[in-house]
Amino acid sequence: MEDMATGEIRLSILWEWLHKQARFTADNVPSGVKAGDALTPALFDRLLTEEYKKLLQAGNKDVHDDSKHTTLPIAREIVDRYVKNPFKPPWYIDLLNLNLNNHDLGRARQRIEAYLTAFGRDGTRLTDNPDFEAPAGGGRA
């Protein structure tokens, strides 16, 4: 739960920085970012790609090998769409919940798009994972 809250805060901050074009306060030699550079969509894309490649190259202890081609690409897609979306979704956890037990990136993209479209249209939050059925009798397990 704590990791999800940390992720929620970090994505929210990245959304703010990108959409307000926050400026970096210090040079970062490895990334080529200089103090005063703004976080632009192009820079965000480059940094996200670089960090994703690092995760793919990480050892099994740090990033499970079996997740590198299942859940990791979906997590990357969620980060990308959340941060670059013109309005800030209230909960990134909704996007994770919609994709629990889903390892298909195409299906994840459809679910993310449906969520962002519904919320952008009228504030509707899609929260029911289509892969789970409610137990008979309408109660939750």
Quickly give the CATH architecture: Up-down Bundle
Q: What distance separates the N and C termini?
A: 19 Å
Would you identify the regions where 5 or more consecutive residues have pLDDT less than 50? none
What is CATH's topology name? Answer: Malate Synthase G, Chain: A, Domain 4
Oligomer: single chain
Largest sheet: none
Strand content: under 5%
E-strand count? 0
The total domain count is: 1
Helices, by number, come to 5
CA-based gyration radius:
17 Å
How do the strands and helices of this protein lay out in sequence?
Elements: H1 2-19, H2 41-57, H3 71-84, H4 92-97, H5 105-122
Helix pairs in contact: 1-3, 2-3, 3-5
Q: Could you please describe the fold and organization of this structure?
A:
The chain is mainly α. The chain has one domain: Up-down Bundle (Malate Synthase G, Chain: A, Domain 4). Helix content is 52%, strand content 0%. α1 packs across α3 (71-84), α2 (41-57) runs antiparallel to α3 (71-84) and α3 packs parallel to α5 (105-122).
Please outline what is shown here.
The chain has 141 residues and is mostly helical.
Which tags fit this structure?
141 residues; mainly alpha; Malate Synthase G, Chain: A, Domain 4; 0% strand; globular
